[in-house]
Amino acid sequence: MRLLLIEDNARLASLVREGLDQQGFAVDWCETVDAAEHALQINDYDLMLLDLGLPDGDGLDLVRSLRRRHDMMPILILTSRGGLDDRVAGLDAGADDYLVKPFQIRELAARCRALLRRPGASLGTRLTVGNVVLESAERVVAVADIRIDATPREVDLLECLLRRAGHVIGKPALENALYSMDAEVTPNALEATVSRLRKRLGAAGANVQIRTVHGVGYALFAPVAVDG
């Protein structure tokens, strides 16, 4: 899942990014409303984390602008404005949730997952293809009801493939979902992750296939039913 964090406190932004990365999220960071608008024009995000007091404007104005444009991306406000009137104003402006600073990363991650599980959002609770199951909230993968270990990046990749099972997903779309803008990504990073995931699923006895469509991307296919 790819998130956009808009926060002008560099130290807090670094802590949030590091913490959410460990929870399996890819996070891009902007310090201003203007930079956020630019990021939104060139990238697709599953969720926005938004401070209110920004150097070039109030975050609530950005919320209102997005909602006027019928952009229904989930928005979680992160702010030190903790009064009742502030929370009401944020939610009435169109934000989906409101978290007052200081906060714990575990709670922030849980709120992110809750927003992404809402109807129409990016996360379902349980994804199943063949004998492979991903519990998206807990980031747990199982093959034939036996839990297997997988890295956060492998889980992210598997989730993308499961959600579009039977369809080819282009390499740019997968890279966009797995890596933040300033992540140090080697040219073959995606291919290496796909290879590791294939081996991990194969060793566990998974009956799905991850196929390479050369020059395009990857697709996950369910086992073929055999008439008996």
Q: Could you please describe the fold and organization of this structure?
A:
The chain is an alpha/beta fold and 228 residues long. The chain has 2 domains: 2-116, Response regulator (Rossmann fold); 126-221, Orthogonal Bundle (Arc Repressor Mutant, subunit A), CATH 1.10.10. Helix content is 39%, strand content 24%. The chain contains 8 helices and 14 strands. The protein has helices at 10-22, 33-42, 59-68, 84-93, 105-116, 152-163, 171-178, 189-203, and strands spanning 2-6, 26-30, 47-50, 53-54, 57-58, 75-79, 97-100, 126-129, 132-135, 140-143, 146-148, 169-170, 209-213, 217-221. Strands 2-1-3-6-7 form a 5-stranded parallel sheet, sandwiched between helices. Helix 6 crosses helix 8 (189-203). The protein is elongated and about 55 Å long. It starts with a strand and ends in a 7-residue tail after the last strand. The mean pLDDT is 87.
